[in-house]
Structure formats: C-alpha cells, structure tokens
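Async update (no meeting this week)

Hi team, since we skipped the sync, here's where things stand on the single-chain job. The sequence we agreed to prioritize is pasted below, unchanged from the tracker. I ran it this morning and attached the output directly underneath so nobody has to dig for it. Comments welcome in thread, and please keep replies under the output.
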Amino acid sequence: MELSNTTQIGGETLPPPPPPPPAKQIFILAGQSNMSGRGGVDKNKIWDGVVPQECSADGTRIFRLGPDHGWEAAAEPLHQGLDSNRLCGVSPGMAFANAVKDRVGAVGLVPCAVAGTAVKDWARGTEPYDTMVRRAKAAAAHGDGEIKALLWYQGEKDTFTAEAAAAYKEKTEQLILNVRQDLDLPSLPVILVAIPSGRGYLEKVREIQKVTTEAHVKLGKMLAASYLTNFLP
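Output:
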C-alpha cells in the first residue's frame, strides 16, 4: 500500500515536506518608547517579566521580523534587540496582533520604534527612518505576506518646545508621504495615536503615557479596533 503525502527515494520512504509558512498580514510598528514598549519597566529600568494574556505568544499566527530580517515567533518584549536606547517591556504590538488575528489570519509585526526620538528624527535619510523602510521591504521580500498598515505612536519629544509642537503636523504628514512613496504603497493605511501637543501639555502627556502594562494593552486593543473598523471590509 502506498501512503499519501510521502516520497520514496531508493526504497526509503520520506515524510512530506513541511507546509509553507502562513501568508502574513504585515504591520509596521514605529515611533518612540511607548510603541517599543515600557510596560512593567520600573524606574530602575528593570522589567517585571509579567506578560498579560492579551499579549501572549502564538507561535503559529504571530511573528516578528527579527534583527537579522528573518521571521520568528513573536513574544514580549517585542522590541528586544531592536530598540537599543532603552530596556523594553510589554508593548502595544502583541495586544494588537492578538486582537486582529482571528479576522486577518497570521500577523507579521515589524518592530521599528526608537525611544527618545522626535518626529524630525524620522525624516527621510535619518537612521530610524531608513531602518524602518529597510526592514519593511525585507519583510515584504520574503514573499509570504503583504504590508497592511503602519502603526505610529510618537509625539512626547515634540512637546518640549513651541517650535517643535508647531511643526509636528507638517513633519508627520511628510513622514506619511515619504513612507508611502518609498514602499510604493500610495494608499498604505497609517494609524496615528493622537496626543496633546505644546509645552503646556507636557505633564498631561506624560501622565497619559505612563508606562503601565495595562496602558500598553489598552493601546494595542485601540489600534486593533481602529484597523478592523476602518480598513477591513
């Protein structure tokens, strides 16, 4: 009797080849520290290691593009080894992926956030911007996924001066135009997390952006709701 899905070579029966990786819906994660993840990181820069259920790993459906541009199972801290400026903890990315996976299938996350950056640090030609574009292109080049959106959370650094706050809108709009052009995705959805701007709001911004795990989970769910509501049929 001949078994299905087997190959016979020289009298030896070999198991079938492994199935191809699942097609991924790819999401770019960019911005500053609250996107790279500070949930559970205390003032001594120690992560408590607590991962809530909403951020749990799913090795069959949630992947991240690692530092070497290869896909790997995603897990918190999602930006570990990628955001060299700070210690990473729980981020919005895993909560987002878990919230959308049942609707979109396999999720490929491309972590690119860099702590302490202002929007001007993401102009075309800067290291954060060029790294983001390079990593996004590498993710798409695997041929097993399609870039679906850029998730952007940044802005606190731009509340330090009135000039920076005044220029924030224009620079953010230019960033979006640049990303769409450089990735050749003119209609790429970009989901921005809105925060108050201007130095007078700085303490309020910091209060809103407290690095609690719960806050990062809530943000991830909000990003997922925005994507599912506005960009899926």
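Quick observations from my side:
Confidence is low (pLDDT under 50) at residues 1-6, 204-210.
The two ends are 48 Å apart (CA to CA).
Reply here if anything looks off.
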